[in-house]
């Protein structure tokens, strides 16, 4: 489930303001969103100061900067009261911090930020979060529950996985309804489902074959995103199909980094080099 959270970290789009449409290279005719003016993995405006700081801190894994941003948002919340966007911003910062603490294997930080993400994002939905943010909010709640499932007892982890499945399936449905199949978060939601089936035991629905079906669909929808190839390589390696694993690890090495996801791309390439060395002996 650690891998599920890592991919959801990348899953964080929102609309641009109407004034930006005139200089927008691509406007979705059905939903009126300027795809050049949105960050499809965050759900917040690219021109916003919060977004700039958030994207820089999350792309570099800067925990102190993320915590500073979180405290500023919390202070604004205390002073100005609840708004759905403010709650949403707080929730996605908590979610990025889950990923960082997972990498550091710091259980206390994981459980705290996962609990806060579920609570704050749930509150945003309860207060009427805009439709365009709902796919992401449900996905992050599911991911946070998946992170908690790693660090609680067996019975409680089963309930967390049920919640994970419910929220991520809801996120996939809402994403297609609002954004359409081709919008980037759609591919990552397939990757999230694939990781869930790969990284959980059979008695809670785990299946490498189901995982591959979802992960291949993610690659079809976004063939340039190298982390999806990493997921397929890991799945084949788990199945003992090392030749296929090598093929996909090699793709991770060969594909160029995407600047917006540079931090995760660099980490994936490092893992690919280690895996190829191990598999080739």
What is the global morphology?
Answer: globular
By secondary-structure content and strand pairing, the structural class works out as: mainly alpha
Strand elements, count: 0
Characterize the quaternary organization of these chains: single chain
Radius of gyration: 18 Å
**Count of DSSP helices?**
12
Protein name: Tetratricopeptide repeat protein
InterPro entries: TPR-like_helical_dom_sf, TPR_rpt
Keywords: Signal, TPR repeat
What does the secondary structure layout of this molecule look like, with pairings?
Elements (H helix, E strand, L loop, with lengths): L1 H8 L39 H12 L2 H18 L3 H21 L2 H20 L7 H16 L4 H26 L4 H16 L8 H14 L4 H13 L3 H13 L7 H19 L1
Could you walk me through the main structural features you see in this protein, from its secondary elements to its overall organization?
Keywords: Signal, TPR repeat. This is Tetratricopeptide repeat protein. Residues 1-18 form the signal peptide. TPR repeats lie at residues 226-259. This protein has 281 residues and is mainly α. The protein has a domain at 2-182. Helix content is 70%, strand content 0%. It has 12 helices and no strands. The chain has helices at 2-9, 49-60, 63-80, 84-104, 107-126, 134-149, 154-179, 184-199, 208-221, 226-238, 242-254, 262-280. The radius of gyration is 18 Å and the shape is globular. The two termini are 28 Å apart.
């Amino acid at each position: 489930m650690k891998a599920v959270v890592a991919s959801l970290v990348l899953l964080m789009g929102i609309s641009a303001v109407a004034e930006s449409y005139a200089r927008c290279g691509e406007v979705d005719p059905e939903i009126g969103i300027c795809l050049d003016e949105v960050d499809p993995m965050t759900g917040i405006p690219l021109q916003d100061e919060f977004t700039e700081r958030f994207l820089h801190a999350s792309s570099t894994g800067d925990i102190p900067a993320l915590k500073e941003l979180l405290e500023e948002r919390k202070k604004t919340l205390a002073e100005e009261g609840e708004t759905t966007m403010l709650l949403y911003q707080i929730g996605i910062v908590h979610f990025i911090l889950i990923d960082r603490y997972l990498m550091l294997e710091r259980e206390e930080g994981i459980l705290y930020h996962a609990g806060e993400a579920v609570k704050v994002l749930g509150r945003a939905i309860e207060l009427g979060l805009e439709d365009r943010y709902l796919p992401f909010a449900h996905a992050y709640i599911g991911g946070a529950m998946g992170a908690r499932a790693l660090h609680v007892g067996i019975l409680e982890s089963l309930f967390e996985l049920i919640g994970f499945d419910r929220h991520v399936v809801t996120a996939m449905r809402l994403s297609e309804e609002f954004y359409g199949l081709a919008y980037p978060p759609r591919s990552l939601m397939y990757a999230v489902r694939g990781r869930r089936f790969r990284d959980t035991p059979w008695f809670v629905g785990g299946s490498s074959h189901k995982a591959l079906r979802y992960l291949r669909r993610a690659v079809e929808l976004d063939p340039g995103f190298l982390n999806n190839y990493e997921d397929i390589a890991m799945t084949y390696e788990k199945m003992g199909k090392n030749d296929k694993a090598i093929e996909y690890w090699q793709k991770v090495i060969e594909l160029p980094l995407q600047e917006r996801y540079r931090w995760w791309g660099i980490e994936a390439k490092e893992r690919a080099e280690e895996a190829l060395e191990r598999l080739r002996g």
